[in-house]
Amino acid sequence: MATRTIGEHTTVTTTGVRRKRFSESYIGEWITTTDHKQLGLMYLITGFFFFVVGGMEALLIRTQLALPDGKVLSPQVYNQIFTMHGTTMIFLFVIPVLSGFGNYVVPLMLGARDMAYPRMNAFGFWLLLLGGIFMQSSFLIGQAPNGGWFMYAPLSELVAGHAFEATPHMNADFWLLGTTLLGISSITGSLNFVVTIFKLRAPGMSINRMPLFSWMILVMSFLLLFALPSLTVASVLLLLDRHMGSHFYQYGNGGDPLLWQHLFWSFGHPEVYILILPAFGIISEILPVFSRKPIFGYTFIAWSGVAIGFLSFTVWAHHMFAVGLPSIAQAFFATSTTLIAIPTAVKIFNWLATIFQGKIRLYTPMLFALGFIAMFLIGGLNGAALAVVPFDYQITDSYFVVAHIHYVLFGGTALAVFAGIYYWFPKFTGKLMDDRLGKWHFWVTFLGLNLTFFPMHIMGILGMPRRVYTYPANLGWNDLNLMASIGALIIGVGVIMFMINFIKSLKYGQPSGDDPWDAFTLEWDTTSPPKKYNFLEIPVVRSRRPFYDKKYPEHADWKSVVEH
Amino acid sequence: MSQEQKDHVEQSVQAEESDVTAAPLNSTPSPDSAPVEKEPVAAEGTTTTEGATKRGTTGKKRTRARGRLVNAEEVMPRPSIWPLGMAFSIAFVLFGVIAGPIFLGIGVVLLLVCCLGWILERR
Amino acid sequence: MRMPVFPRTKRWIALLGCLPLFSILFAACGENSPSILNTAGPVAASESGLFWIILWISVVIFILVEGILIFSIARYRERPGMPNPFQRHGNMTLELIWTVIPTLVLFVILFFTIRGLLQVAPENEPAPTAAQPRIEVTAIGHQWWWEFHYPNYNVTTADTLEVPVNATIHVNLFSNNVIHSFWVPALTGKTDLVPGHENKKWFVAEKEGTYLGICAEYCGTQHANMRFNVKVVSSDAFKSWMSTQQQAAVSPTDSLAQKGQELFKNQCASCHGIVGVNVKQYYDTQKECTDAPGGKANGTPECQLGPNLTHFGSRSLIAGGVLDNNADKCNPNNPNLLQECNLAKWLKDPQGVKPGNDMAIGELTNDQIQQLVAYLEGLK
């Protein structure tokens, strides 16, 4: 308290009139804020900005590949673009947007006034923004990262083996430093989530009564905390190789290129679940509200998330079936990969049971959530196919894998993100998004994504390798590629519709009131948008659906349900 | 678990309130003279913060006695420029790793300044 | 407040409209594609055979789940006057059922996985017999072309891997630069060429023909143009091909080709070798060009940067498969040589044909190109 007393003096100017603080000016308010809601919005806006950047990179890729022997991009530029597309979408779109939702919604869901460490929260956001700008700025000097988002050594070394030049310029450095910055950002964010979730829950909200979105954010945070060090270590070793003359990844001096792959994928696979688990959480919030039922099998959904989290650390080498691991190791990783499919299947069945016999209101958020289930199922099935090692020898590093990741990350996470935006937009702004335009957005996106990504399965089966800047005309891949490019354009149209809807609704949106969806969880038990302090009175929780209990006391969950 | 939660909330509120009582002794401007967007929680309608309804600590009573209400802004974290400064300096340090020792040096200095600023800032 | 309920529209019409689109997809499967389903050997057949098993299991699950999803949406969509549903929180029996059933299905798949894995594993390579001999080949990945060395015959070639039918081809995978991946969709799945790792694989080709091979691991600027052909021939044809390859290059007889040879010695010999012209014999890159002790530096005769061209005229691809070696168009007297002959195009502008590659030949006059084409295409 002493600091406070001393500090109070400093706000008094010599004239005795209180000067307007910097943090009260318009710009100052944004750049000094420590409010979790404002930071959450900033995360979301930043993430969406980079989504547009990454989307443009994707459109360039598809333009180049629309026709065989494409000449739109040079191979050097193409390689930078596809690298930055992957990097941007994963590190600068999905993670920030999901952290944005987490930041905004989790404290509200838990009945807290803010995150546990507000200034660290702001710090994480600024690191993310600077890291993103830092990475994208590499285009300005024409040396964007070009080693793929996986940045395999020794291709990312200055010199590959035997004095062959690999990446002599700064391309890889931008990537390595950028991801290190983003890594610090994610670590601070995750710590903050963990402490917030463990320490700041409202009275009565046991871990077992937490909304599932908070559960998934918790699991995601632990995954980030344990997975990111591996990436940071890998990056630092590579930086040392590049600038200090060490040889961690160079076989000629006793290093090993596979070290990078093991380190990278032991980050990279948990990362995949980092990208999808909060999406599961969003879906698990939206489905019950729009089906007018509680989530089916809360415990199973929560603990299958935890199971996925644990198992995700044991499956990394399924990205490396083709590197020549011993058969016994491949069998092990095939088994663990098979196991991780089980909790995922359990989740899908629970979601189906949630909407089954419900009263389904097909508003836009629900539409996106249902679209998520439909598309994520495809991503799960072709993912299971990839775990079949001998078949994987044939299709790994082919377009089949591209189809798989996009069904999971676009058909899965991106649809869930849109669902979340439509769902929580009234919370953010007090206005509804246009439902009609939203539905158009959904159907256009749905059509576009299937048109883009479904043909990629067939391309992969027809032998088209991924990461190629062009392909010859005589191999039967032309029609499929053209189709995928048209689909990408359609997705682009969908995104434009979304932006129009967003801006229009921000200005002219129909007022939503505090609780437009008749929702169940605490974030709706306050004004929309919430005041800085979130709740006048911290609510007391007696079940998993506290707001439902409050609105329908005669049917309150705590009267009928025994929760363990 | 839930009992711990309750304690935590109460403690933090208690700390804030004893602050409020201490404030006039140090001749700081009272919340009443603060800009309008400062919203006293009680003015919102219902009651005061959760702490007030459940406990009757001496600190609370004294604020009540003076007609002072618990101010939302005092419960909430304050804005700060240092997170941005810190993020910028870390970015600068990492940039300095590849750009050369001069940038690295500037970055380290910036980082130290921001660390100090962050630590010494009033909360 | 409540949102207004929008009237239901016939959206399924739009969905049906998408169906023809998807049928086009299947019709579009090209004839010439290096499809993994057009197998020509037991390894690929074993790998792709699994595809059908997974496909059918997936189709069943897909129809089941999407069916329940669509049924629920259609059946339980909110209608006016619909009562609130029963608030069911879960059901332990159901949970157990849908945990156990997927587990069983997945373990069936896992059984096939591990069985298939062992079938194609390097340790399971068939022992050589009279009917099925074993041919050893070293595949060497360069940026961005393939070199093939036959250690038992001491022969090196590039871009085309020629093997006899019904023999076990044992492939040693070697790279001294970055990681590449050896993939012949019709014959075998991928195995990476990791510097410092002695990976190997095997395959058997049961049908004669030419199969496309592809580098499947991202290896830099020209990763897209790093293909090769696997030419499967009868065992007699293989023997005669091999005895030709073992000989030094023929000396050119006509004056044009002789000039070409001189030009080669002056312009190309620092990166390319021709046995009998500027190198004495083929060298085994895996032994000579390692970073291990005793490895030679780049640019020494043992370790040249470009492919060995001793029997260039007998190959079917140029420069990592970026162009076909269309020898029939490359008669030096062809007036449209520069337009029609791929080798001439390549010599004219290697950086235009394959940007970023290491070929640094400098500007050649049309006459010089004609001479080089005459010489190189004559190296059968």
Could you characterize what this model shows?
The complex is a heterotrimer of chains A (564), B (123) and C (380). Chain A is built from 17 helices and no strands. Chain A has helices spanning 2-10, 26-32, 36-66, 75-110, 118-136, 171-199, 212-243, 257-291, 298-311, 327-355, 364-386, 389-395, 399-429, 435-461, 478-508, 546-551, 557-560. In chain A, helix 3 runs parallel beside helix 5, helix 3 (36-66) runs antiparallel to helix 15 and helix 8 (257-291) packs across helix 13 (399-429). The model of chain A is unreliable at 1-14 (pLDDT under 50). Chain B is mostly helical and 123 residues long. Chain B contains six helices and no strands. In chain B, helix 1 (2-22) packs across helix 3 (58-65) and helix 5 (82-99) packs antiparallel against helix 6 (101-120). The longest helix of chain B has 21 residues, at 2-22. Chain C contains ten helices and twelve strands. Chains in contact: A-B, A-C. Chains A and B meet through helix 1, helix 2, helix 5 and helix 6 of A and helix 1, helix 4 and helix 5 of B. Chain A: It catalyses: 4 Fe(II)-[cytochrome c] + O2 + 8 H(+)(in) = 4 Fe(III)-[cytochrome c] + 2 H2O + 4 H(+)(out).
In short:
The complex is a heterotrimer of chains A (564), B (123) and C (380). Chain A has 564 residues and is mainly α.
Derived from helix and strand composition plus strand pairing, the structural class of chain A reads: mainly alpha
Series of H and E elements of chain A? HHHHHHHHHHHHHHHHH
Following the backbone from N to C, one meets helices and strands of chain B in this order, namely HHHHHH
What oligomerization state is this entry in?
heterotrimer
- Proportion in helices of chain A: 55-70%
- Helix segment tally of chain A: 17
Mean pLDDT of chain A: 90
Give the N-to-C terminal Cα separation of chain A.
Answer: 41 Å
In one word, what is the shape of chain A?
A: globular
